[in-house]
Structures are given as C-alpha cells and as structure tokens.
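hey
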C-alpha cells in the first residue's frame, strides 16, 4: 500500500468520525430568538449582520435596525440641557486647562504655584470637583 492510499483511507475515516461526533453533539450554541409582544426571546449567539449593516444595532426582536433620532442626545450648552444639565456644563467650562503633570503633582501633594501651598491648591481643586459633581436640588 502506498503512502497516498494510506492518507486517503485515514482522511476518509477521520472525516466520518468528525461527522459522527458532531451529529451526537447537543450543546452547540444556537442563534438567539428575538422577543415578540407576546413571547419572550431565547438566549443564544447574536445573528450575523449582513454586509452593509455595520451601522445598525441588534434589537430585542432579533433584527438589525438603524438608530432613530430618539437614540441621539442633544449637546449641552450653558443655556440648554443636553446629556448633562446646563448648570453642570457651565461649571465644566469654568475649569481651566492644566497640563497632565499638574494633576499628577496635585495628587502627589507636590504642586506649587507662586504664593500658594500644595494644600491650598488641593483644597481649591477639591472645591471645584465637589461643586461640579454636586447634585443640584431642583
């Protein structure tokens, strides 16, 4: 028997064995089933999107859809609420720029400016942070 004949026999038997194993396998993940108004969906792998659907999202009903205007948020300004309140936007805009090294020095307690101590700078930053993230009573 030649080497090619042995390879052919072996590959045929291997293919048959693989097919047999997969035929018995019951825990192969299934694709999710989408929900309806009357019935809950079933968990599983996300269905593969088709070419051209890269900008779509998977909905609970198992289909891909374009985002609607309801999925977007207005940009906050100092006069109008957006994803943050107008008051928070104003506070955020009042924070002055500093270089990343300044933040590291403030956190390490080694930041110094003319006439200011590190403790004064930390207290000032603490006040800004607290004012910025404090919940407004409305």
């Amino acid at each position: 028997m030649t080497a090619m004949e042995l390879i052919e026999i072996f590959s045929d038997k291997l293919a048959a064995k693989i097919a047999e194993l997969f035929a018995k396998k019951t825990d192969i993940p299934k694709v999710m089933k989408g929900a309806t108004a009357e019935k809950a969906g079933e968990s599983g792998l996300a269905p593969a999107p088709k070419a051209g659907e890269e900008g779509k999202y998977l909905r609970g009903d198992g289909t891909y859809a374009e985002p609607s205007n309801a999925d977007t948020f207005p940009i906050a300004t100092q006069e109008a609420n957006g994803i943050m309140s107008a008051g928070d936007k104003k506070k955020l805009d009042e924070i002055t720029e500093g270089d990343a090294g300044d933040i590291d020095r403030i956190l390490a307690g080694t930041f110094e400016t003319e006439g200011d101590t590190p403790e004064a700078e930390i207290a000032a930053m603490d006040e800004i942070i607290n004012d910025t993230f404090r919940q407004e009573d409305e």
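The beta strands are 57-58, 64-65. The radius of gyration is 31 Å.
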